[in-house]
Specification:
Helix content: 40-55%
Largest sheet: 5 strands, mixed
Shape: elongated
Number of helices: 20
CATH architecture of the largest domain: 2-Layer Sandwich
CATH superfamily of the largest domain: Ribonuclease H-like superfamily/Ribonuclease H
Oligomer: single chain
CATH topology of the largest domain: Nucleotidyltransferase, domain 5
Radius of gyration: 41 Å
Strand order of the largest sheet: 5-4-1-6-7
Length: about 500
């Protein structure tokens, strides 16, 4: 047919390699060979034919969201004689029917974001990465901030759930690390932060959030509840960031970190490398951002508590111990995502790890044995039935030791020995080393020897050198008194006799 554009049918047929008659036959019928074939009919009866229009189509029309496998199972239940091999055929026919007669589907519209306009915030769960701190699983989330135009990212490790405190701290850290403020800030509906709050608390949280974005001059926007794709500029990057962190953990060879700060530095390094790849776009957008305010605003909640005779206070169903000298005083507590900072008047008196109730109904305890060890020394038997006894032990080795002592030497001696071990850890600042020693004793099948351990950590005695002081003779003072001072000039140099005469 290409040769026919410039040559006669005879020449074109010869150039194509077939006879002149074939050339004239193609000239008379311009259809392609594939168009001349009649469709092949079925070789066997259609098992779905009696069911399709009568049962399957009405089922699909009534319940459009029904999965094909559910339709197949329902047809097998109604008609046990239906063979297993028709499942794929049924799935293909349902897919084709939905393409021709099914309901309209939602359409995703790609958006173009100008620089400096949109910043987005969201939280993402990190449980799948199985990160541990000193061998213990870390239940945490990431607060994730991103600029829609340049892809600038900031991630902040959050120990609790989605809360205003976590949002305020993470957002402000992101803005000050960025060095500017976008025009709009978009978040989800904050339904997780409102959970378990009464109406007054929800209104208060809404006002605090609006005050936060107003302090930075941003306009808050939210996507509709349940429509995560409306926050698509950050929902998809969640997965990319988590995969990047997972890859770095695999390259690191371990998912365990010595402490929370080490893990946070690790996340910051991963995010920093991702931002370095977008450096040029970030610099373009940074020039379009608004200026930061003079100072940050509050990223904490504040509460007033009184320290009771139990040596602590209760806040949000969690009991915290503090130094006993604060008993009877009212404290102002700033509640952050991972810590509590306590103030007596304007003086900071304690920083505590934040605890959380496991189900918002049961009480929890955050206990530091250093706060109560002096009282336990006077009343060691209080340890036996102490409400927060398990939380009192700073490491697992101490808990194992107490259980072994109870089983081996009885309640009274066990409490005295355990209190002595805790007091030794406090007085000699040897908590970790002492834990290793008592764990080694338990592994060897013997109980720790308190006297031996006290001797092991006793301070080394220092020898005082003998110093002999010789008193000077009184005649030396008489000689000093008889010395005549030499006159000096203005410049401090000794003045000779001739010079004195000239001056005179």
């Amino acid at each position: 047919m290409k040769s026919r554009q410039t040559s006669t049918p005879t020449v074109a047929a010869a150039m194509a390699g077939f006879s002149r008659a074939t050339g004239y036959r193609i000239e008379a019928d311009p259809r392609l060979p594939s168009q001349k074939k009649s469709p092949r009919g079925r070789r066997r009866p259609d098992p779905l034919a009696p069911l399709w229009e009568a049962e399957i189509v009405p089922l699909l029309a009534k319940t459009p969201a029904l999965r094909p496998i559910a339709v197949f199972d329902e047809m097998r239940r109604r008609h046990p004689e239906l063979p297993d091999g028709v499942r794929r055929t049924l799935e293909r026919r349902i897919r084709q029917w939905r393409a021709l007669h099914g309901p309209e589907q939602d359409v995703m519209f790609s958006q173009e974001h100008p620089p400096g306009r949109m910043g987005l915030s969201d939280f993402t769960d990190m449980a799948a990465l199985e990160v541990t701190i000193a061998g213990r699983p870390l239940d945490h989330r990431l607060y994730h901030f991103r600029l829609a135009f340049s892809g600038f990212e900031h991630a902040h490790v959050v120990l609790g759930g989605e809360s205003y405190v976590a949002l305020a701290e993470g957002l402000q850290n992101a803005l000050w690390a960025l060095g500017g403020v976008p025009e709009f800030h978009r978040s989800d509906s904050l339904s997780a932060a409102f959970r378990n709050l009464d109406r007054d608390a929800q209104e208060d949280l809404t006002k605090r959030y609006e005050a936060l974005v107003a302090h930075y001059g941003m306009t808050p926007t939210r996507n509709n509840p349940g429509l995560a794709h409306e926050n698509g500029s950050i929902e998809s990057p969640h997965g990319h960031l988590k995969r990047a962190i997972k890859d770095e953990l695999l390259l690191r060879g371990s998912r365990d970190f010595a402490d929370l700060d080490a893990y946070r530095r690790f996340v910051d390094e991963v995010v920093g490398r991702r931002n370095a790849r977008n450096r040029k776009r970030i610099e373009i957008e940074r020039a379009e951002l608004d200026e930061l305010p003079e100072r940050r605003t509050a990223d904490y909640e504040e509460a007033r508590v009184i320290v009771t005779s139990r040596g602590g206070f209760t806040l949000k169903l969690v009991f915290y111990t503090v130094p006993s000298r604060l008993i009877g005083h009212w404290l102002t507590v700033r509640v952050y995502d991972d810590r509590l900072v306590c103030f007596l008047g304007g003086s900071e008196v304690a920083t505590l790890r934040r605890g959380r109730s496991p189900d918002h109904h049961k009480h929890a305890h955050v206990v530091d044995y250093r706060h109560v060890i002096h009282a336990l020394r006077r009343k060691p038997m209080a340890l036996l039935n102490l409400v927060y006894r398990d939380q009192l032990f700073p490491r697992e080795a101490y808990k194992r030791t107490f259980e072994a002592l109870i089983a081996g030497v009885g309640d009274k001696l066990a409490c005295r020995t355990m209190v002595g071990l805790l007091a030794l850890a406090h007085d000699r600042a040897c908590e970790a080393e002492l834990a290793d020693l008592i764990a080694a004793d338990l592994d060897a099948g013997r109980l720790p020897d308190l006297d031996r351990l006290r001797e092991r950590f006793a301070p080394q005695s220092a020898t005082v050198p003998e110093i002999t002081i010789e008193m000077p003779s009184l005649e030396i003072y008489d000689e000093l008194a008889s010395v005549t001072p030499v006159p000096t000039g203005i410049d401090g140099e000794p003045v000779t006799a001739s010079c004195v005469e000239v001056v005179a």
